[in-house]
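REQUEST FORM: STRUCTURE PREDICTION
Request ID: SP-0412
Submitted by: Lab K.M.
Chain count: 1
Length (residues): 71
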Amino acid sequence: NERLGNDLKAAREAAGLTQGGLAEAIGVSRKTINTVENGVFQPSTLLALKLAGSGRSGGWWLTIATCSDVR
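STATUS: Completed
RESULT:
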C-alpha cells in the first residue's frame, strides 16, 4: 500500500527517526521498515501495533494511518 508507506515514512521523519532507529526501537530489521515504506511488505497486525506504540509522543503512526491501511 503506497499510502501506508508514505504515511509511515513521513511520520518517522517528522519524529526525527532513521529507518534503523525505528527498527531498533521496535525490534525489527531496518529492511523491514524499508519494505513497508516502499510498499513491498504489508505489516502484520503485530508489527502495526509495534509501530503505533513506537512514537516519542506515543502512537504517532497510528494517528495518521487509517484502520483500512492496517490489515
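NOTES: The chain has a mean pLDDT of 78.
Reviewed by: T.R.
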